Amino acid sequence: ALLDVAGGSFARLEDGSGGPGTICALVGARTAKTGDTITLASETGARGHLLAGLTPPPPVLKVRLEAQGAEDARRLAEALELMTVEDPSLVATGTEGAGEKDFRQAAITLSGLGELHVEVALDRLRREHNLGNVRAGPPTVECHETLTASVDTNGDYRFSRSLGGSVFSADIDLLLEPTRDPDGPTFLPPRDPSVALSPSVREALDLPLDPDFDEDLTRPDANPAARAAVGGILGSLRRGPLGSGPLCDIVCTLRGLEAGSPLALRNRPGGARAAVATAAREVLERARREGIVATVEPVMEVEADVPGEEVGSVLADLNGR
């Protein structure tokens, strides 16, 4: 519903539209978050352009939250879901079904862009949501992992497995490369892994070969086989092989994907997903054995001007962090 909020009236706009100067509020957009751009659907039913929303930087600091009871755990989960919609740079995990399981086993964590960001969020939980009994653990730093050199499947990786009562076989050739310049700037935010498809793979997945063609292949309405292949790779690249954190600053190029015929890939996207995911995990394990996986720790450059008599206490505080 579209509401007219001028003067605090919150009157419903019956025709569902507002003219120039009208201040409106859209109610019921459950999947929209702060920073999303909402467009009207075409009257002809044709799919319009999907506009990119706000892409917040990844969180760098995390705290674990502990509720005092099952009811508080449920209220905490609901409050965090609202806060993460309002502020996409906040990330909450473990909120699913928090009130339905033993609250002592509910590992609810809150991540933000820094200590002050998390402290403000905790203060909002106490003031706005009346959750003063929630305890926060000590903050921990969110580390990432990346590659220091390129690694590939060393030829085609053969995947053969029984899926859904029949055997699915495929040959996969993929390459993992670091995207960060070792001689470049040090203070750069980590970037999520990305996937590139070679022309032969695009042809096998029935995708346009135009190099300027750009489509989000993770969308629900994307090409099913391509979405399965990209999703399988990204799923395997979610965590680093060292186990210290998620992967960052790498690109995976899928150079070859053959399953007998293109029709086999298009008819069995689940098989394609399992095949490329397994190949990506094997390449990551090889990178770990070769010692080309590194831990990326957050680095912050701080300059502080303090009175001379306070230098000792400030240094002690910094050294204790």
From TrEMBL:
It comes from the Eukaryota. It comes from Corethron hystrix. One of its GO terms (biological process) is mitochondrial translation. Coiled coil: none annotated. Residues 57-131 form the Elongation Factor G domain. PANTHER family: RIBOSOME-RELEASING FACTOR 2, MITOCHONDRIAL, TRANSLATION ELONGATION FACTOR G-RELATED. Pfam families: EFG_III. Keywords: GTP-binding, Nucleotide-binding, Protein biosynthesis. This is Elongation Factor G domain-containing protein. The lineage of its organism: Eukaryota, Sar, Stramenopiles, Ochrophyta, Bacillariophyta. One of its GO terms (cellular component) is mitochondrion. One of its GO terms (molecular function) is GTP binding.
